[in-house]
């Protein structure tokens, strides 16, 4: 046991109100720690505290009680004896009467009440006494916020944990709670209060109980919160939203059926409010209350309820109708939500009442005069466009009300269909099956839209009912509505079909025609998609309908009709897939799938190929077998047009083929992945590609058509990267065997120790046959997409092969080498002659590229000095540029995995940048040929500068997650901070104008490709260089993209909050640079962004920018006369911003 | 200064859905010029608002959302003549009621807005539509008199009001 003297100082420190809150907290923790470790018993603590707990000094007493409570709060998981708990709760309960020390008592009660059973909790009896004492002694509404909150929590806890014991308090409890909640305004307390009411109502369900007796008082307290008016728009520290509060209040409203006589009139009254939010809330509450109160209690409100709902539904805003496609924005709008909620409420009412015997509610609706009048006026026989706005609104309202009735239950549906459906059929001129039907039904634009709309909507609701009934295995085949519909179905389908067929043309208002036709299509679709055991379409009529809808797809193309028709076919397809009806499935396959497959595959016919592919995909996706057939056909077409293009040389189909490849990789492959058929399909594709390569036919086109081969390679890459390792092994093996069989590639030549030798012997890309050239690229593409675990056959040979073709200018080879090195983890570890990464790097870099490039550089500089105009130098230049491209990809691969060899690559690149400069110093003799040598050097240096772009950019082609690359986090940022100092110092030291331009080019690539955040942290250092780069680069038109990229970085530096020091320090030079760019002639975006940046600059501190104002205003005024409109707009804004920083007079 | 609103409840028209100008992709025609046309001038002017004052002691911007010239149909696209080559713009506006005291303020706001948005080479002509205002000639004269416009813009009260009308246009 700890000695009292050792911990009493903690007590003193807590009680002493002059101590800081940290100290007080620490002392609580110390005491609680003692109790937790059994060094101090709770009884011992109370005994020692006696003086503090009972003293006459109320401040000390309050602190003492709080101390005990806080210590107990920390012991929530420490088992305590029942006797102790009984004693403690008794103590705190008695202290509730002590208003000066109330806070501690409340905390203590709450802490004890919240204890779980396994650690010892408050007994029922004590809880009852506590509740009683609290009701007796505490005036909740006179307390401060925190204590009020505690009181509400206390009651909430009592009702949650000891309902039976508290219930014995009866009326006192209800009264007390009423008084407590009355006038409460804090949302936190209200959340608890609403919850308390809800539990209270559950506690006394009997009519004679206290809640039943005091329902009016209790509801009066609640009702003044409705509708919840909440001014906190944002979530503040309370974390409570208006929606939360409103929902809690709704639950309280629904909690007791005794609230019905007060709540329903209130809600109905608020429904007519002009405040949208009140309307919305009323509808929500009504819907919920109807369900909770039940039909019996609601029956006396039925009439009023219906009238109010009718009023709301008939006044829907017109654009929230079903006729207009909804945008997301609209769905969020309040009026749309009201419409939704009103229908939901109607649904709730109908379903509640339809369970009762006489169903008064649906009779009310059906016999309503307004419904009948609107029905009649809406179906007067005009097209939608000719209807008045009023009748448009009415017909939609009637439609939605009747649909809700139909969907509610079988009997309701019977009544509605019996009354309205025959009338509608009559209006449309459709007779019962078998009777004489008009065969001359043609579309003339005067179709009764109201009748068409209503009949289609009713059919659709009937189908919904049938589907729901099928789920609950109800038998509806012989229900009244079903046989009535069955009676019309054949002639309905026939007439709709006739109308649809004849409405493809004519001099009718375009909008009317399209709207009518899409409803006809929808009607036909619904007719054939009724579930089993309800309305059945015969196979013949099923086929007829499919044929008619298909005629829209294959016939004269009309985009506005085409989409609904396709959607209908898709829905029918899904239905057929689910229905397990082999006959219908067969018909669908023959009529729809085969026809769509047989459409011509060229882009020059009337239907755009993109849409045709969309149709193929959506029809295919209705069933797996269908899709497999689609894929088969697609493969056939792809490869036949492949042959046509490559072998026959008809490149005019190139665009089609590219589109097919795109479709294959963006739609088909993901589908295969989802359905786990990827490898089956993918392997077939790769096999086909290799077959083409192996065939004897010679290719007529090669790299000339870059787009086509790019699409082919991209698709191949995606297929390869998606396959598992085992399959990838097969693909690589196959490619390798083809490689060995190629005549241009005798492996022995690669065995030469020196790369130069083999380089000389191997044919260049343009000396290869076109097919072989394509193969080299394809092979490289396959290699770059491999999984890191896939072994590569004969690694050394393949690396050499790739390196040679890289030097000959094959960029895929460069990407492949970069990717291989990047992913080199356990490549071919299984082979005994395994290559490790270091060996590979040595082969490719140290003994390969680096050496070659170094040599070439030497030759070049010597050449230029000796002014030899031979071709050798040119070749060296070519070799150098190719080598640099290769080096950049390899460097990227290494950089991304964080390999230290990347540094060597970067150093070489930096050296190349300075090539023209070094050259100048070595050649002092001035003659003309130095100039040409100089040009070549610039060419080389420029490709070195562009290599930095490759190093840092996010490439789509390779080295990304899709193709399994290893990506070290923040590699770009690391690179930036490592290279930038060297870069900046070389720029500073550089004397020559040309070299400076090249250095800035590299600098520009680095700055614009590094994530902005990294650049901004260094903005002080780089900003002046960026400005300098902008002024140098803006002189030439070919670097406009880079100027734009740099400007975007600059705008980031100017606009990012809290990082504006750099912009502030350099304001004058930034502004003069931006003013220069305002007249940049080569790119509008540059001018626009420059003006925007200037505008952002106007927000810097006044003193800093004021002197620059006249200068800016002059420049921006010139921009008002820019040739491009967006620039003028920005200029007007920017001018205003700058003009208004000083005075109102804006004439300068 | 008016002590009460002349047209307390103006007719507010629904804004017509005009096809917004599609921004051309940048690479399309980098060096081709977009001439300043009717629609551009209308876009410049359509968001100018009419801020009304109840009395000269307390400024109350009434109603909370002042109506734009487009909503009040004070300016329409057809009433704008532009000749980019000759650097000339003529805007004809229609006051909401015949004896509208706001006509000069609206005219002044239009002039200031155009002055700030168009290149300085433009000559701007602003007129009240014939037959729509009681003192048509006087208003026209006032609006197109350089010196009177300059003098008006020296008046801090007037400038304040003009700024109020234009504040929404720079968003």
UniProtKB/TrEMBL annotation, chain A:
Name where it's found. Answer: Nucleus
Residues of the MMS19 C-terminal domain: 702-1097
Write down the superkingdom of origin. Eukaryota
Gene3D superfamilies attached to this UniProt entry? Leucine-rich Repeat Variant
Write the record's keywords in alphabetical order, separated by commas: DNA damage, DNA repair, Nucleus, Repeat
SUPFAM superfamilies per the UniProt record, alphabetical: ARM repeat (SSF48371)
* UniProt-listed InterPro entries: ARM-like, ARM-type_fold, MMS19, MMS19_C, MMS19_N
Any transmembrane segments, and where? none
**One of this protein's GO BP terms?**
protein maturation
GO annotations of cellular component type: cytosolic [4Fe-4S] assembly targeting complex; nucleus
* Keyword Nucleus (UniProt): yes
Q: Tell me, what's a Pfam family for it?
A: MMS19_N
Ranges for domain MMS19 N-terminal come to: 46-315
Which family does the UniProt entry place this protein in? Belongs to the MET18/MMS19 family.
What is the purpose of this protein?
Key component of the cytosolic iron-sulfur protein assembly (CIA) complex, a multiprotein complex that mediates the incorporation of iron-sulfur cluster into apoproteins specifically involved in DNA metabolism and genomic integrity. In the CIA complex, MMS19 acts as an adapter between early-acting CIA components and a subset of cellular target iron-sulfur proteins.
Name of the molecule in the record: MMS19 nucleotide excision repair protein
Where does this protein come from, organism-wise? Spirodela intermedia
From TrEMBL, chain B:
Q: What is this protein called?
A: MIP18 family-like domain-containing protein
Q: Which SUPFAM superfamilies match?
A: Fe-S cluster assembly (FSCA) domain-like
Question: Which species does this protein come from?
Answer: Spirodela intermedia (Intermediate duckweed)
What is any one of the record's Gene Ontology cellular component terms? Answer: intracellular protein-containing complex
Pfam families referenced in this protein's UniProt entry, alphabetically: FeS_assembly_P
Per the record, the similarity remark reads:
Belongs to the MIP18 family.
Residue ranges annotated for the MIP18 family-like domain, each copy included: 56-126
Which of UniProt's keywords are assigned here? Chromosome partition
Query: Is Protease included in the keywords of this UniProt record?
Result: no
Q: Source organism's superkingdom?
A: Eukaryota
Under the heading InterPro entries, the entry gives: FSCA_dom_sf, MIP18, MIP18-like
Q: Which residues cross the membrane?
A: none
Which GO biological process entries does UniProt record here?
A: chromosome segregation; protein maturation
Q: Where is the signal peptide?
A: none
């Amino acid at each position: 046991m700890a000695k009292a003297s050792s911990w009493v100082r903690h007590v003193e420190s807590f009680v002493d109100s002059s101590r800081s809150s940290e100290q007080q907290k620490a002392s609580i923790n110390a005491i609680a720690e003692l109790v937790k470790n059994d060094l101090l018993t709770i009884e011992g603590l109370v005994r020692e505290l006696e003086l503090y707990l009972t003293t006459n000094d109320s401040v000390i007493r309050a602190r003492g009680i709080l101390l005990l409570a806080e210590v107990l709060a920390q012991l929530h998981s420490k088992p305590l004896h029942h006797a102790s708990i009984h004693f403690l709760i008794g103590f705190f309960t008695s202290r509730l009467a002590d208003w000066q020390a109330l806070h501690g008592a409340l905390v203590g009660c709450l802490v004890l009440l919240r204890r779980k059973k396994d650690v010892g909790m408050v007994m029922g009896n004590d809880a009852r006494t506590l509740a009683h004492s609290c009701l007796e002694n505490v005036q909740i509404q006179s307390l401060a916020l925190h204590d009020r909150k505690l009181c509400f929590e206390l009651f909430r806890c009592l009702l949650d944990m000891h309902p039976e014991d508290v219930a014995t308090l009866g009326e006192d409890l209800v009264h007390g709670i009423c008084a407590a909640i009355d006038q409460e305004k804090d949302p936190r307390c209200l959340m608890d209060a609403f919850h308390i009411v809800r539990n209270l109502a559950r506690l006394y369900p009997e009519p004679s109980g206290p809640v039943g007796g005091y329902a009016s008082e209790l509801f009066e307290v609640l009702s003044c919160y409705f509708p919840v008016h909440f001014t906190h728009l944002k979530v503040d520290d309370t974390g409570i939203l208006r929606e939360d509060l409103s929902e809690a209040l709704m639950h309280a409203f629904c909690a007791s059926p005794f609230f019905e006589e007060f709540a329903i009139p209130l809600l109905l009254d608020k429904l007519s409010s002009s405040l949208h939010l009140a309307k919305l809330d009323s509808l929500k509450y009504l819907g919920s209350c109807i369900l909770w109160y039940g039909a019996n209690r609601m029956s006396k409100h039925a009439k009023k309820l219906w009238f109010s709902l009718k009023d709301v539904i008939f006044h829907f805003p017109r654009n929230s109708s079903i006729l207009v496609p909804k945008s997301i924005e609209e769905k969020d709008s309040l009026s749309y939500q009201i419409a939704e909620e009103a229908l939901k409420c109607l649904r709730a009412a109908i379903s509640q009442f339809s369970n009762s015997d006489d169903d008064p509610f649906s009779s009310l609706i059906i016999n309503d005069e307004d419904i009948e009048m609107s029905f009649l006026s809406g179906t007067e026989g005009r097209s939608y466009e000719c209807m008045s706005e009023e009748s448009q609104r009415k017909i939609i309202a009637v439609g939605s009300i009747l649909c809700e009735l139909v969907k509610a239950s079988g009997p309701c549906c019977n009544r509605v269909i019996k009354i309205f459906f025959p009338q509608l059929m009559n209006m449309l001129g459709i007779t019962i099956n078998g009777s004489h039907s008009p065969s001359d039904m043609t579309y003339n634009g005067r179709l009764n839209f109201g009748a068409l709309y209503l009949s289609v909507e009713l059919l659709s609701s009937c189908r919904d009912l049938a589907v729901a009934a099928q789920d609950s295995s109800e038998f509806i085949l012989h229900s009244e509505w079903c046989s009535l519909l069955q009676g019309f179905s054949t002639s309905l389908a026939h007439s709709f079909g006739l109308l649809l067929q004849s409405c493809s043309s004519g001099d009718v208002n375009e909008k009317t025609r399209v709207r009518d036709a899409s409803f006809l299509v929808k009607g036909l679709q619904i007719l054939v998609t009724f579930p089993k055991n309800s309305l059945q379409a015969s196979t013949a009529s099923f086929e007829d309908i499919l044929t008619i809808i298909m005629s829209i797809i294959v016939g004269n193309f009309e985009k506005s009709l085409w989409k609904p028709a396709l959607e209908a076919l898709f829905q029918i397809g899904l239905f057929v897939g689910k229905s397990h009806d082999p006959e219908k499935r067969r018909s669908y396959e023959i009529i729809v799938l085969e026809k769509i497959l047989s459409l011509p595959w060229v882009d020059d016919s009337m239907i755009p190929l993109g849409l045709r592919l969309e149709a193929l995909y959506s029809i295919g996706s209705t069933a797996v077998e269908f899709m497999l057939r689609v894929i088969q056909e697609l493969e056939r077409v792809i490869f036949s047009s492949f042959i046509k293009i490559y072998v026959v040389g008809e490149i005019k189909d190139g665009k089609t083929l590219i589109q097919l490849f795109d479709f294959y990789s963006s739609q088909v492959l993901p589908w295969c992945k989802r359905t786990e058929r990827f490898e089956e399909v993918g392997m077939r594709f790769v096999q086909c590609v290799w077959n083409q390569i192996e065939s004897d036919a010679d290719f007529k086109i090669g790299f000339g058509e870059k787009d086509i081969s790019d699409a082919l390679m991209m698709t191949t890459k995606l297929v390869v990267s998606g396959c598992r390792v085992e399959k990838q092994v097969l693909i690589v093996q196959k490619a390798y065997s083809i490689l060995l069989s190629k005549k241009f590639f005798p492996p022995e030549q690669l065995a030469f120790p020196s790369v130069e030798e083999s380089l000389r012997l191997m044919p260049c890309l343009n000396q290869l046959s076109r097919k072989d050239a394509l193969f080299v690229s394809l092979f490289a593409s396959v290699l770059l997409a491999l999984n890191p675990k896939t072994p590569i056959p004969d690694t050394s040979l393949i690396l050499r092969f790739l390196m040679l073709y890289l030097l000959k200018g094959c960029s895929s080879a460069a990407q492949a080498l970069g990717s291989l090195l990047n992913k080199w983890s356990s490549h071919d570890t299984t082979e005994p002659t395994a290559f490790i990464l270091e060996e590979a790097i040595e082969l490719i870099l140290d003994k390969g590229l680096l050496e070659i490039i170094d040599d070439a550089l030497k030759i070049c500089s010597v050449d230029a000095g000796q002014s030899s105009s031979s071709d050798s130098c040119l070749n060296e230049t070519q070799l150098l540029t190719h080598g640099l491209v290769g080096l950049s990809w390899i460097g990227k691969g290494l950089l991304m995995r964080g390999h230290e060899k990347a540094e060597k690559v970067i150093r070489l690149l930096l050296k190349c940048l300075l090539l023209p400069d070094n050259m100048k110093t070595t050649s002092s003799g001035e003659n003309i040929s130095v100039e040409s040598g100089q040009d070549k050097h610039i060419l080389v240096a420029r490709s070195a500068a562009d290599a930095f772009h490759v190093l840092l950019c996010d490439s789509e082609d390779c080295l990304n997650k899709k193709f399994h690359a290893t990506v070290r986090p923040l590699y770009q940022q690391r690179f930036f901070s490592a290279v930038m100092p060297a870069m900046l110092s070389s720029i500073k030291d550089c004397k020559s104008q040309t070299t400076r331009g090249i250095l800035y080019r590299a600098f520009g690539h680095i700055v614009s490709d590094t994530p902005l955040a990294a650049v901004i942290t260094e903005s002080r250092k780089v900003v002046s260089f960026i400005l300098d780069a902008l002024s140098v680069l803006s002189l030439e038109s070919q670097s406009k993209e880079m100027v734009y990229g740099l400007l975007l970085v600059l705008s980031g530096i100017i606009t990012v909050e809290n990082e504006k020091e750099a912009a502030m320090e350099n304001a004058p030079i930034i502004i003069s640079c931006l003013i220069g760019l305002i007249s940049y002639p080569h790119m509008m975006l540059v001018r626009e962004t420059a003006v925007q940046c200037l505008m952002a600059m106007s927000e810097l501190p006044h003193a800093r920018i004021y002197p620059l104002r006249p200068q800016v205003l002059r420049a921006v005024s010139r921009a008002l006369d820019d040739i491009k409109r967006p620039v003028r707009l920005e200029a007007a804004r920017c001018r205003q911003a700058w003009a208004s920083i000083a005075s109102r007079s804006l004439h300068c | 200064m008016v002590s009460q609103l002349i047209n307390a409840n103006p007719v507010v028209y629904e804004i017509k859905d005009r096809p917004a100008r599609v921004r051309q992709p940048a690479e399309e025609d980098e060096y081709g010029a977009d001439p300043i046309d009717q629609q551009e001038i209308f876009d410049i002017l359509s968001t100018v608002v009419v801020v009304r004052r109840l009395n000269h002691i307390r400024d109350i911007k009434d109603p909370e959302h002042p109506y734009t010239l487009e909503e009040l149909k004070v300016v329409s696209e057809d009433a704008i003549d532009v000749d980019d080559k000759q650097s000339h713009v003529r805007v004809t506006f229609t006051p909401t009621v015949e004896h509208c005291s706001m006509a000069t303020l609206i005219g002044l706001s239009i002039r200031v807005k155009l002055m700030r948005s168009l290149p300085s080479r433009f000559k701007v002509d602003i007129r009240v539509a014939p037959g729509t205002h009681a003192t048509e000639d006087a208003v026209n004269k006032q609006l197109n008199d350089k010196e009177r416009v300059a003098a008006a813009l020296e008046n801090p009260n007037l400038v304040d009001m003009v700024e109020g009308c234009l504040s929404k246009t720079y968003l």
